[in-house]
What we know:
By secondary structure, the chain is mainly alpha-helical. It is built from six helices and no strands.
Amino acid sequence: MPAPGYSKITPEMAAAILAECENGAPRYLAARNAGVSRRTLDRYTKKNPDFALLLAETCGLVDDQVEAFLANAARGLSTPTAPQVTSAIFWLKNRRPDSWRDRYDTAHSGELTTIVKVIRQGAAA
């Protein structure tokens, strides 16, 4: 018997999670809407590598569509519904931070020397 609070993902729930991701929902929200926790979804994907691959591909397709829209908007190509470019940028920064983040980590090597000079005010000379 499962522990209290633990839910098992059924094939119907897995299909619902994929459908949510296909509509653009992040994984944690798709899991919640299917009635399970993100942790349960993570365990399920570890035990079912085929589902994990399908989930990654499904989430990636939506991200690819948003990225393609942003590329077209940057080139000045119009779209019939004219979605918000700013929304697309924030979407990609949150969903693909490795490719779209503004901050980059840099490493410093070498030595840094600091010189401190103390000046006394009001001291008699």
